[in-house]
Amino acid sequence: MLRIHFTGEDLARVRMAARPDVLWETILSFHRLRDRRGATVYGEWRTETRARLNGETRLLAALVPSRGYFPDFLTPPEALHGLDEGLEAMRATPVRRLRAELGLLAADRPHTGLPARLAGLAEGAAEPMARLVGALRSYHRAAIEPWWTQIQAAVEADRAARGRALLDGGADELLASLPPILRWQAPVLEADYPVDRDVHLEGRGLLLQPSYFCRGAPVVRRDPELPPALVYPVTHSGASSAVDTERGRVSLGRLVGHTRSAVLRSIGNGCTTSELARRAGVSLASASQHACVLREAGLVVTLRNGNAVLHTMTPLGTALLRGGGQRDPVAPGGGYARNGPVTS
Questions:
Q1: Cβ–Cβ under 8 Å, residues 1 and 192
Q2: 328, 139 in Cβ contact below 8 A?
Q3: In terms of CB atoms within 10 Å, which of 8, 112, 204, 322 comes out highest?
Q4: Measuring CA to CA, which residue among 247, 236, 248 is closest to residue 302?
Q5: How far is CA 108 from CA 10, 53, 105, in A?
Q6: How far apart are CA 131 and CA 29, in angstroms?
């Protein structure tokens, strides 16, 4: 059981992450790559990612076991601002922390210890850290970068649902609105967890970080001195996490017309079907139909929020309204995502 203990000051300092955290997604995706669960959501991603990999996983597997502890220095808070910032923070990890966290990793492997390929990393040697940074960057390029648009859309949809809860009832309602794996029993947030763990926030507040690749249990950092963050799984809204290109092309053709464009614009930062109908001046049935077509085209994500459904625009939908692809200041790395260019 995981128990996170809040004070009144902590409740006032609860906040939502502004975007996906690139290194949390990278590390947690490595877990998803090696398990067979969640085929409906991750099956296509696994197939595509495995075809792109070229030996990057050997070093990562030594640091990120299939289960249990992995070092906190792999997910520095700076990664919320982008891959380069996160990797630079990782490079700057003090030797004392490297030694301590790799010692915890070795303690979970009493019969084998740390693999030889990690030799020197605990002493802060430049070459082993450079190899690790290179492996993470290469793995990220294969596993995360092509799917960044989908990751962003899923996290933005979750943020919209949490933001609505916060506006409706404050921090108490926000914590109560989290996925069912998390249970808010003021002043404690509980979740089933592989080990028994109590986290006392002690006035520091809590960063809520929705994650595309988190599955099952939430994740917290082991080191109590690090800024408190709770990584939890988003709700995946469809049978496939990716937008099928051929289906999307057909659906986009159906978007021509002033009414549907007005519906997409009316969704704005998120709304329920009833609100969409009022904003766009259409019937409830028509609003639902338009939202369905927009969802099939990859322009909208729909999540259930209590007794209602909440529609939010994806990055592709936003770009369409703006008249083309927009530069994303926090997108990780260069290259092309499934739905368009991703730039650093």
A1: yes
A2: no
A3: 204
A4: 236
A5: 32, 27, 5
A6: 20
**Torsion 306-312-314-317 (CA) sign:** positive
pTM (predicted TM-score): 0.75
Closest CA to 25 of 246, 304, 215: 215
Model confidence at 333: pLDDT above 90? no
Q: Which two tokens stand for residue 261?
A: 């464009």
| Cβ contact 220:232 at 8 Å | no
Residue 141 CA: distances (Å) to CA of 49, 50, 52: 10, 12, 9
d(CA 325, CA 341): 7
Ranking 67-81, 102-116, 289-303 by mean pLDDT, the lowest is 102-116
Full DSSP string of 82-106: -HHHHHHHHHT--HHHHHHHHHHHH
